[in-house]
Amino acid sequence: MDQFTLNLLFVGASFALYIGIAVWARAGSTSEFYAAGRGVHPVTNGMATAADWMSAASFISMAGLIAFTGYDNSSFLMGWTGGYVLLALLLAPYLRKFGKFTVSEFIGDRFYSPTARLVAVICLLVASITYVIGQMQGVGIAFGRFLEIDAFWGLLIGSCVVFAYAVFGGMKGVTYTQVAQYCVLITAYTIPAVFISLQLTGTPIPALGLFGEHTGSGEPLLVKLDQIVTDLGFKEYTAAHGSTINMVLFTLSLMIGTAGLPHVIMRFFTVPKVSDARWSAGWTLVFIALLYLTAPAVGAMARLNISELMWPNGTNGEAVSVEQIQTDPEYAWMETWQKTGLLDWEDKNGDGKIQYYNDKSADLQAKAEANGWAGNELTKFNRDILVLANPEIANLPGWVIGLVAAGGLAAALSTAAGLLLAISSAVSHDLLKGQLTPNMSERSELMAARLSMAAAIVVAVLLGLNPPGFAAQTVALAFGLAAASIFPALMMGIFSTRINNAGAVAGMLAGLVVTLLYIFLHKGWFFVPGTNSFTDANPLLGPVKSTSFGVIGAAVNFGVAYVVSGMTKETPQEIKDLVESVRIPRGAGGAVDGH
């Protein structure tokens, strides 16, 4: 059976499973659409939350960014995992006890203001739409490769699949679909990693293999990798090279952004009791750890494999020949990925070889001139293809490649569905039902939720055609926006009775606006290419890149909220009593459902 047919079988079977589950668990009421009827078991919810959380950025993009940068991109690991701990400890149980359907509803009630709820909806929509761009980007890449079509058509096909099961299933259908997707994605991520770890180190546990010995040379794997990449003019893999200030700000931005993500917080509204929200958080950490402990090994081992494939005779020998790429089955993956437009090479000096090296390295200029090299000839290697191409690069069996196809799509689709639910609930429940048409019937509200979800998919596809970076970088922007706007409002809403409605509204708007402005100045206005005034290589504020600005936006939010609250009318006593009651653990099982 050829590889294309195997890919179709694995992807087709997984999609049939997802859509079947969505039909079986179809939401019939607003409670089931928004919160799965609040009847999800903590272990089930933990698995669904892990799938919701481990997006295309985690599955497809993160290991690729680590692979081609090394230590400096370990911020993604530290920020995302640390942020989830913050969410589990500081926010999830209290928000569940409050007993509402959405984050915006909590903010509206806590700050006793329809305006606060409306501003929260705006913040949620901006962060979620930016986030879903990264997911649709991952969907397009995965479909493009495994259907062997251009990534543009992959994006359109993927958006139709998301529409099919997210629009009809609602939170109830998405919950059980995400359980299946977690099983698919974690199996697809770990099996190739185990194979590759065994190949390179003889160790079946990738996280241990990362610190093991390279079977070919007997050297520690990371020492071997450092040697190869520095020989090719790249920076040392295991050393820090970027700004420490930016790295700290970026990590913090990812952490607090994680704790402010509406689509993840919504998952904790689906369990029966507050204690179940805590257990859900614990189980989610276990399920997330399986992938996050494996990702650094996947990145390092893939970088080593690629470097050795491009220089099969060692870095002092001859580079791989064009003929070998075209005829050797070990290199078949390169021509397959070339069809997607995400990988390319060019024999610039006409010597029949493809030299892969850092042509911007001053140390390598003399060697390049002596050998007649005309620049790096691996002209394009999109970081987002690394994990999906990894089994092919390592020459693993065809069924593993098909499994990874299904896993990459599961990761992107599960988070896309969660984000679309957050967007649709913000529009239908918070904006229409909560603000504009309070007498809307339940049937009309469900219809509005599905229509707003469909509109969000269209917007995400249009923006996904020209994304502002790789999937993980695009997602990092969304985390910055959530960090600057939603997280401070939630923290102050739960832990401070001093913040009033005026302070909360002013803080959210200030945090959102300054962060959006900083991002647009660096990534282009509304992400339109060529309209930016600065770049992340040369930022406006010293070392602070656009992906790291979220924590500064959050500080602005906190500062403005406290100043404005101090200058305006004090929080009413009944709201102070409400805040105190939310933080008291007694009676936790009696969370009140509300609309």
Summarize the structure.
This protein is mainly α and 595 residues long. It is 68% helix and 1% strand. It is a multi-pass membrane protein.
Question: What does this protein look like?
Answer:
With 595 residues, the chain is mostly helical. Helix content is 68%, strand content 1%. It is built from 24 helices and two strands. The chain has helices at 3-24, 30-35, 42-53, 56-69, 75-98, 103-110, 114-146, 151-201, 206-209, 221-231, 244-258, 262-265, 274-292, 295-310, 322-327, 332-338, 365-371, 386-393, 398-436, 442-464, 471-495, 501-523, 550-567, 573-583; strands at 343-344, 380-381. It has a two-stranded antiparallel sheet with strand order 1-2. α5 (75-98) packs antiparallel against α13 and α6 (103-110) runs parallel beside α21 (471-495). The longest helix has 51 residues, at 151-201. The termini are far apart. The model is unreliable at 586-595 (pLDDT under 50).
